[in-house]
Specification:
The structure holds two protein chains of two kinds.
Chain A (H helix, E strand, L loop, with lengths): L26 E5 L3 H7 L3 E9 L1 H4 L8 E3 L2 H9 L5 H13 L4 H11 L4 H21 L17 E4 H10 L5 E4 L6 H14 L2 E4 L3 H13 L4 E5 L1 H17 L3 E7 L16 H6 L8 E3 L4 H18 L2 E7 H5 L1 E4 L13 E2 L23 E2 L10 E3 L13 H13 L1 H8 L4 E4 L5 E6 L3 H11 L5 E6 L1 E3 L9 H6 L3 E6 L5 H10 L5 E4 L8 H9 L3
Parallel strand pairs in A: 1-2, 2-3, 5-6, 5-7, 7-8, 8-10, 9-10, 12-13, 16-17, 16-19, 19-20
Antiparallel strand pairs in A: 4-11, 9-18, 15-17
Helix pairs in contact in A: 3-4, 3-6, 4-6, 5-6, 7-8, 7-12, 9-10
Chain B lengths: L18 H15 L7 E5 L14 E4 L5 H11 L4 E7 H7 L1 H10 L4 E6 L34 H7 L4 E6 L3 H13 L4 E6 L11 H5 L2 E3 L9 H8 L6 E8 L5 H4 L27
Helix pairs in contact in B: 1-6, 3-4, 5-8
The chains are: A alpha/beta, B alpha/beta.
């Protein structure tokens, strides 16, 4: 949840020595820096959990046993000489409660405040120590939560937005144009922060219409390009999307969903744009939609998006949501070994022997040579948003129209479909209960499956490559669903859009659907509770 | 040197007598005289009668969406600034649908030229009012006459410090050619508004109507003064001045983008190996 400086703001952290992949509803420790936080989140604190607060800041004293009153502000003033360091005191106190050492925190304080000078660094470290020592000495009820001092394994800490940005840069993307919109802006920020190091052009457009048309212009001119936005901004990009379809200009578009309609919940999450993205754009043209289940998968799929966009000269979407985009996750690594980069652009030397280059030359694959204007010798590159002939010039006749629709759409569709990987099956290999999810629900479904699989034949079927659906010859996932007794589709939207897609594409109808549309992600507890009605 | 044969395109589908024919042949002549080869030029257009122009000239072409000429042209220039890029648009296309992009292209100041075929009417959709149609003009969907004041694109561009602002007349090709050459060779964003009679839908602003009114800015006119230029741009009626209203040089967009100072973006090689270390920053 991100607000700027006004209003209620909070951050939820879940840690474990096991691999975890979802958020929980209930809290072990609530670290409250104001009264509003206590009032809003008190009900989420588990039995036996703690609420660390400062009665001076809250201007209220709580007598219930879960409350631990720690003078964050006073210690910050005494030790750090500045009340703003109350949060550092509080963080130290939380680590004291958890019996986790202060070394990692000290390093973070050094890195964070280095630019503000040594005094600020030392004062913050002193505040962290004060909070820590206070908690160790004065918190009689602080038991061990089973958290051990970490082994300091080398882990990455990264968001979905950053893995998408990194995936793009490692795919040779050199141009990013966008208009700021939560929760997609982090991709543009990431690009801008790397522009100098990797020679990238990042342009903040005057609106989303300009953003997508700029990305198209750069791609037409021979550079791998990308744009990103959220639902409302994507609504403005729709005509441009159709332009990529007609001109066969490769483009990768990131759509980070937030709850709509209209302005909706700008800083909350939802999977409500799936059918919009699927159907966006007038006319018929091919597209691919990926919706990663984790930031790690987002990295891989962004690379794949650039490959498919350029190979087939089509738009490819990375669709995700605020939850996956902005949450920070830890990973041991990302999959660098399987990165691919194939340059499908044609330059003068690639076109040797071709007398008469035609941008939209008919072919059985539907793919025509993608020459770079100005870099292809004397060959001319002509692109048109009107229906056009092989050279790219306006036509009106039905014969050319039919051939062009076959070329850019019908010939490409089966080839694109072959590129799509099968959904992931996790759990029992011939399950009686199948829980189906797509995109960011991956983690929560997986953890829930882990808790119920011992006595039930249950599995998760997770889709991260959601359109087109993969061919069923390698893995008949519809057959698997048909053989199960109970099939439940989990979605972070109100109308079960993915279930509709599956039914439209395959005829299969889920026995049950679970929808969540309060603008919050599924947590382990609420998914378990919802499933309890069926399992 | 390129010849007119090199620039020969498709047969135009414009009404006989349309002012666009003069604009088309003048662009070709200007490019030939500047010694620019067809494969060195990208013409970007939107939709409208003007938007069809790149099909009638033989060079790189991107004929995109209505109003979206400038974002495509600007980004193509960022991707490959070694190309000469000419944006071609109509008055409805550039001043109406694409008005926002027009303002921001002036701010960015990319080294591209914008030729606006200003016929003061919507031709492609058969005769509705455009942003530059005179107030009070009757059309099929403005039965009470146009209720809005017409837009003054030159005044707007000058007010925003556009680095080159000029106006020509399709009926004076020799003068128009000199203005086009000046716009194309100007370093920075160059607006050339072209008075273009529409023989089918605009029965007011005819060739004769313009001929009776246009005059050329003389040698005594100083195009370096923004305030004077703004004042001059307000002159419209019995006398219509044509020529270079305002001209100054300031840094162009491509020179301010660090990534493309050594060579065009499109010529920069990529290898995964060179960027893999990026991941280390997240540990």
């Amino acid at each position: 949840m991100s607000r700027i400086r006004g209003g209620h703001n909070f951050y939820q952290i879940r840690l474990s020595d096991q691999k975890i992949s979802a958020s929980r509803e209930m809290l072990d420790i609530l670290l409250a820096l104001d009264l509003n936080t206590i009032e809003t989140h008190r009900k989420s604190v588990k039995d036996g959990g703690f609420i660390l607060y400062d009665s001076e800041i809250a201007k209220k004293k709580f007598e219930e046993p879960e409350f631990i009153d720690i003078p964050f502000r006073k210690m910050a003033l005494d030790v750090g000489k500045n009340s703003v360091m109350a949060n550092t005191v509080a963080t130290g106190a939380a680590l004291g409660i958890l019996s986790i050492g202060l070394e990692a925190l000290k390093n973070i304080l050094r890195e964070t405040f280095e630019r503000k000078g040594n005094e600020i660094v030392q004062n913050n470290i002193a505040c962290a120590e004060a909070g820590y020592n206070y908690a160790v000495k004065n918190c009689p009820r602080c038991e061990n939560f089973g958290i051990r001092e970490p082994e300091y394994k080398r882990l990455m800490l990264i968001t979905g937005l950053q893995t998408i940005g990194m995936g793009a840069i490692m795919s040779g993307c050199k141009f990013y144009s966008a208009y700021p919109m939560s929760p997609s802006t982090g991709i543009m920020e990431y690009f801008a922060s790397r522009a100098e190091e990797y020679n990238l052009v990042v342009e903040q457009a005057e609106d989303e219409i300009a953003a997508i048309n700029m990305a198209i212009g750069a791609s037409f001119a021979g550079v791998r390009a990308m744009t990103g936005t959220s639902g409302g901004g994507f609504a403005l990009m729709v005509e441009g999307l159709s332009l990529t379809g007609m001109t066969e200009t490769p483009l990768v578009i990131a759509e980070m969903q937030r709850p709509g309609p209209a302005t909706g919940f700008p800083t909350r999450t939802e999977q409500g744009d799936l059918l919009f993205i699927l159907h966006a754009g007038h006319g018929e043209f091919p597209r691919v939609i990926f919706e990663p289940g984790t930031p790690k998968q987002a990295f891989y799929l962004t690379n794949r998006a650039f490959e498919l966009a350029e190979k087939y000269q089509i738009p490819v979407f990375i669709q995700s949501d605020q939850y996956l985009a902005e949450s920070e996750w830890t990973f041991e690594n990302l999959d660098l070994e399987n990165l691919i980069y194939n340059d499908y652009r044609m330059r003068e030397e690639d076109l040797k022997g071709i007398e008469d280059y035609k941008r939209y030359k008919y072919s059985s694959t539907g793919i025509s040579l993608l020459a770079i204007p100005g870099e292809a010798g004397k060959h001319l590159v002509v692109a048109d948003s009107d229906e056009h002939d092989e050279e790219g010039h306006i036509v009106e006749d039905s014969e050319t129209r039919i051939k062009m629709v076959q070329k850019r759409l019908l010939n490409k569709l089966p080839l694109v479909k072959k590129e799509i990987e099968a959904p992931l099956l996790y759990g029992d290999s011939s399950p009686k209960i199948v829980i189906v999810g797509h995109g960011s629900t991956y983690g929560v479904i997986k953890e829930v499956i882990d808790t119920i699989s011992k006595d039930k034949k249950v599995a998760m079927l997770h889709f991260s490559q959601i359109y087109p659906l993969s061919e069923r010859d390698r893995f008949d996932y519809i057959g698997l669903l048909e053989n199960a007794d109970l099939t439940i589709c989990i979605e972070n939207n109100a109308t079960g859009q993915f279930a509709k897609l599956i039914r439209a594409e395959t005829g299969f109808e889920f026995s049950h659907q679970i929808s969540k549309y309060d603008g919050r992600p599924f947590t382990i507890e609420n998914l378990k509770e919802e499933l309890h009605a069926y399992i | 040197m390129p010849t007119s044969e090199d620039y020969k395109g498709q047969v135009p589908a414009w009404c006989p007598g349309c002012g666009n024919f003069q604009i088309l042949s003048t662009i070709k002549q200007a490019l030939i005289e500047l010694g620019i080869e067809p494969w060195e030029v990208l013409v970007v257009s939107g939709i409208g009668q003007a938007g069809k122009l790149p099909h009638y000239i033989n060079c790189h072409t991107f004929n995109g969406l209505h109003g979206r000429t400038l974002p495509v042209a600007t980004a193509a220039k960022l991707a490959n600034h070694s190309l000469h890029i000419i944006a071609v648009a109509g008055d409805g296309d550039c001043y109406g649908e694409g008005g926002n992009h027009f303002l921001h292209a002036i701010r960015r100041n990319p080294n591209i030229s914008l030729l606006v075929h200003n016929n003061q009417v919507y031709g492609l959709t058969k005769g509705q009012a455009s942003p530059t149609t005179a107030e009070g003009t009757y059309t099929t969907i403005q039965p009470y006459g146009v209720l809005q004041e017409s837009m003054n694109p030159l005044a707007m561009a000058i007010s925003q410090n556009c680095s080159f602002v000029a106006r020509g007349f399709a009926g004076d090709q020799e003068h128009l050619k000199e203005l086009m050459k000046a716009a194309i060779t100007h370093k920075g964003f160059a607006l050339l508004d072209i008075l273009q009679p529409c023989v089918t839908f605009n029965k007011i602003n005819t060739f004769k109507w313009y001929r009776d009114r246009v005059y050329k800015l003389g040698n005594d006119y100083d195009p370096s003064n923004q305030v004077k230029a703004f004042e001059k741009s307000l002159e419209w009626g019995d006398k219509i001045p044509n020529g270079i209203f305002y001209k100054h040089e300031r840094d162009i967009f491509e020179e301010r983008v660090p990534a493309i100072q050594e060579k065009p973006l499109v010529r920069q090689k990529f290898s995964i190996e060179e960027v893999k270390h990026e991941i280390e920053k997240f540990y």
